[in-house]
Each structure stands twice: as structure tokens, then as C-alpha cells.
Specification:
- The complex is a heterodimer.
- Chain A is an alpha+beta fold.
- Chain A contains six helices and six strands.
- In chain A, the strands form three sheets. Chain A has a two-stranded antiparallel sheet with strand order 1-4. In chain A, strands 2-3 form a two-stranded antiparallel sheet.
- The longest helix of chain A is centred in the last third of the chain and has 12 residues, at about 230-240.
- Mean pLDDT of chain A is about 80; it is low at about 1-20 and about 205-220.
- By secondary structure, chain B is α/β, with parallel strands linked by helices.
- Helix content of chain B is about 20%, strand content about 30%.
- In chain B, strands 1, 2, 3, 5, 7 and 11 form a six-stranded mixed β-sheet that branches. Chain B has a six-stranded mixed β-sheet with strand order 12-10-14-19-16-17. Chain B has a five-stranded mixed β-sheet with strand order 13-21-20-15-18.
- The chains are: A alpha+beta, B alpha/beta.
- Chains A and B meet through helix 5 and helix 6 of A and strand 2 and helix 3 of B.
Amino acid sequence: MNRACLWLVSLAIAGAGSAPAATIASAPIPGGRFESVLPPAPNAKETVVAPFRLDAALVSNADFAAFVGKHPEWRRDRIAGLFADEGYLRHWAGAADPGPALARQPVTQVSWFAASAYCEARGARLPRWYEWEFVAAASATQPDARDDPAWRQQILDWYSKSARGALPVVGATPANYFGIRDLHGVVWEWVEDAGSMLVSDDSREQGDPNRNRFCGTGALSFEQKDNYAMMMRIAMLSSMKAAYSSSSMGFRCAR
Amino acid sequence: MTRNTIAMLLVAALLAACGESEHAASTHPVGPTGGSLKGDFGPAQGEAVHAVLTSPPEVPAATNRKQPAKVIVELEVIEVDKQIAEGVTYTFWTFGGTVPGSFIRVRQGDTVEFHLKNHPNSKMPHNIDLHGVTGPGGGAASSFTAPGHASQFTFKALNQGLYVYHCATAPVGMHVANGMYGLILVEPPEGLPPVDKEFYVMQGDFYTVGKYREKGHQAFDMQKAIDENASYVLFNGAEGALTGPQALKAATGQHIRMFIGNGGPNLVSSFHVIGEIFDKVQYEGGTHFQENVQTTLIPAGGAATVEFHLEVPGNYVLVDHSIFRAFNKGAVAILEVSGAPRADIYSGKQLDEVYLSDRLADPAAIVTAAQASASGTLTKDQQAKAGEVLFKGTCSACHQDTGAGIPNVFPPLAKSDFLLADHKRAIGIVLNGLTGPVTVNGATYNSVMPPMSQLNDDEVANILTFTLNSWGNSGGAVTAKEVAQVRATTKRAEGAAH
């Protein structure tokens, strides 16, 4: 049912003339009660994810180039230093042009600020961590496959490869239960609340849970201790400041 | 200023106490050294020093400094695909591009300005926890670094010793299992006693989806890591990293110091060098050492400095003496020692004989005879004595200690007309075996004697001389030369030994 309507939906572009020309398919996510690896509070295990829509694939370099064309203040040669580090779009052929080889690959080397601005221009936003994690828990056949060891190992395999090869084109990985692609095995993804996850820099620190509600990555406070894939995502997100960019950090939008 | 003066005086006093003793044991103060409390020699002096980092198995040269300095360490984190065994690759996460990571050498009291750089191509954020750091997290929180960024923090190295460093980013076990560890040496203020060679070796355990030596690119296996069921246990990050052309090399007469670490993540090492005894082992940062150690335990996340003097040339095998790890998981390295043989200390093989536990005999007679034969002074009596020992090991199972054989099965040698009639034929039978009927003392035997060509000429001669002079036999002797002649002119059965 979800998948049936997926490809019929083109995301409405908010604000005439201010958005990229590309239309990006999204899918409805029903939401529901969810046990995150990061418990919402010291004594709470579950969180509730409200229904939302999520891009079915990652944002590509071509998508992002269209945005930069309309909003030149986000070109790498014009962006304010506050919003991006030196790696910002460094891999593109030109200041506003990724070049043909990269066009259909997911955009990387983008800061959280730039990713947020892109989504905003589309009348959308970055997904929140719980939303992203909820959707990423699904395998092709189950909405929550996190206890399936084979599925988990398949995800871990990506982490066992170095990041030097070319990225696949967007949407090339199989759709999951919700009809969403590219969640695993392609790139990391920015989330809207990446800056407020407040995880400890030293993952073994137990800390005082009252002092820091999300002291989440420590060995004792982390739920689902064998969910290495999610631990690594959280570690990656917490190492990134909003202006940082990385060759393996991309994004998609939600509404 | 005053504090520095005191520190200098302290160092001077220690050096003065050093004496002339050959092993320089007295450079290590006796009694408590005060640990971190006495490790602060005041602010850094002089120009900042850029630390020279080395890849394993190399060790940077001694600092040779007499005062605390500011030392700048720049370490880069790189994720690399490398060979873990022949035909097997693995994505290692490394400090400096190698497993273990670059070796860092500073002096107690140094102020270390640490720069951790995470390569832009890295997929992961990383940090570093140095066990030689005094401060929460050992630097981990201060060095948490996203790909394509660099972090800086500074610490004073208060405790001397050999310390492990490792990545402490979640999931810590996986970062360590992927090779993120190394050693930092904090030299005592007076430095370490000089040696001829220093080596850097570190053990680690690895967990791959495929079995040990299963070809292709292997992914990290989380469940095996949690179960502590290692696919590989390795020295310096790859099977064969320290064997063949990459073997550690030294020469007889040299004093060797090895900085041995264990990155884990799970397994404790029973570190042993086959054929050597560690003259000295300093555990962790110990200022005192243990002597004459055969096997030393190196905990995961721990280290030891071992020293030994090389007397005898040859290959010395470094193993984890949890020995299946050496034979089935790769925990083997080689120290190749060149030099002139030292037969006075170790002879090499002097004897290879059949050994039957219920026929224990003193092999000294064989050695005596072999030496006499070599020097041309061999007597019949020496031959017979050596032959007796060999006979008991090789022949008596069939022909019996009494030489009487077993009726209808094994022919007698005692008063045997067949044996005594033809010495040359007897030599041929020992060397080449005998199949088919023979008549001995009027009785027919139809049996099989296997060729005993594994015996050397001396041994065959001695056995036959023994039989000719035992059990009332008529005497006589067989020489090694006669045996050699028969060996050269007769054909042995196919498959016969040698």
C-alpha cells in the first residue's frame, strides 16, 4: 500500500521560483511507538514517532546543484565561513557544477546548514533522529528487523569497507519495508537534531544521567548494545559540528 | 627555577649512583619512585621538539634529553584496506597507516602537544585514549575528531613506562578490533640503558565473517567479537608481518630490547620467544624488573619491555603461548639471528634414533662412538656398546634382547649360521630389508623385515658389531666404510627411509 502510492507522489515544491527543478519521490511513514538506541529519558524506553513523509532516496549532486543555482549564496565560493568548513562541495568540478560523473551520486561534503537550507527551500526539513532510526530499522520485509542477525551483519559489512570507492547512484539500493532506499550501505545522513543529541565525546563515559540526559553512547546507558550500526551513526553525527562536511555524509529531506 | 634545579640535582644523583655494573641495573632506582608525584620536572624548556614517529617494528631513537621539553606529536588516522593474511584483505582503521599505530617516544616530565588528524577519506570519527595520560578519558574526549578534521590537546607525561594507546569511539571494541592501537614510551628521566637493537611488536585479535584464511575481502564480524572467538591472533596486524623477508633481524652478541604491547580487544597474551629466556622483563611502567622470565603475560591494553642477550644464531619464534593461536590463528613472528655457531652452548641435532619407551637405554654410548668414529679412534668395544643401545631401540622388538628371535616368526641372531656366514649380506639386509623364505639354523622363516636405511653407516656398523659379539657369537666387526660401500651398491625398496 505504501509502496503503491510512493512513485505517484511528487513532492510539492514550496515557494514558486525558489526551489530546485527536480522532483523527488517521497513515501508516507506511519510512525508509532519505537524503542530507540538512545532512550528519550533515563527511565523511558519508548518514544513515539508521529506520521511523516520521507524522501525515498538521497539528495543527489544534480539536485543540490539546482538548489545552488537558485541560491548562489550556498555556492562553495560564496558561502559564509560560519556555515561550512573548507571541505564544502570541494569535490565538485566547479563552484556550481558537480560535473557529469557525479550528477546522480548522492551529494556529500555538505554542512548541516546547507542541507537544512536545501530542505527548507523545498518546503521540507531534515528528518529527526528518531524518525530516521524508525525507518532505518526496517528490512525489505519487516518494519523492525533489528533483531535479525543476518540483516544486521549486512549493514555492518558497509562499515567494513573503506570510503575510497565511488558512491552508487541515488536510489540504487533495494527499497525497504516503507519503500525507502539508500538508508544503509551508501553514506551517513544528517538529521535535524544532530546538534542536540548531546552524546559524550568519550563513548565509555558513564557520567551523571541527570546532568546530561543523552549521555547515550556509554556502554551502560546505551540500549541495544549490539546494535553497532546505530552506535556508529550516532558517534559519527556527534563528531560533526553543523558547519562540518565529510565525503561520506549526505542527507535526505522529510516533511 | 628552583624546582628545575632540584630535578637536575636528582637526575645527577641518579646518574652518579649508576656505578660500573655491566647490566646497569642501578640506573633504575631501588624503592618507590613516587610515580606521577615525582614525574613533574617543571615547565618545558627550550625549543619545542617534533616527535619522530616510527612504523612497526621500528622504534624511534632515544630522546637523549636531560630536561623536560614541549613535544609536538602529529598522528593521522587513516582507514586502509590491507592484507591480513595471504589473499585475505580487511579494512583496518589505523593510527598512522599501520597496525599497530606509530610508536611515540617521549621523556618523563615532557609536555606533549598532541594533534590527532582524521583523514578526509575516513568514514568514521575517531579519538585517542593514551594510557600514559593523566586526566579523564586519557585524551579521548579532547581528541574526538570527525573525518577531515584535526584536534589538539596537551598533557604532561608524569609516569614513566610503556603505555598502550587506542581509539575510544563507540563502538570501542570494534575500533580496537580494526587495529586502532599502538604504544607510547615515556622514558625515565635518565633514559633507558643502551642496547644494540630495539623492536616494536604488538599483538591483536581480529574477527572476520569468513574463517581463518578464507580468501577475499573480509568484513568485521560483530558476533564473533562479542563471543571473543577470534579468527586471527596476530603480531603487527597481519599474518607474516614479521616472518620471511620481514623477520626481525639481529646478530649474536647483541642485546635486544622488545617493546611488546597487546591491543586486544579481547585476548590476553602469553608472550614467549621459543629458544630464549628474557633476561629482563619490565611490566607496564615498572621501574623494577623481573629476571629470567620464560613467558610473560601481557594483558589486553597492557605492555611489557623485554630484554635478552643473543648467544646462538638461528631463528627464534615469537608466539602467544596459548599455542593454538600460534598454529591456527597466525600468532607467529620470527627473530632471525645471524652469527657463528656456538656448539658449546647449543649443539644442534646430535642424534636421531628410534625410541621405544620400554627400551630405555643410555644414549651416551652412541655419542661416544660417534665422536670416536669421527676422530678415527673407534674401538670394537665402543662399537658394541653403542650397537647395544641402538639394537634395543631398533631391532629387539622382533629379534628380542636375547637375540633368540621368535620361533617360526622372527629368525634368531644368537649363534645364527645365516648371520655369521656373510657379513656383507647382513649389512645389505639391515639396509634394504628382507622378504621371502630363509633358512636359519635349519628352520625356515618366511617373514618381512623392513629396510632400516634410516640408520647411518656408523649406526649399522655398530649394531652388526654388537650382534657379532653377543650371545655367544663368534666375534668380528663391521666398519662404517663397509656399510657405506653396500649402501652405495645396492638398491633399496621403494619408500624406504632415506
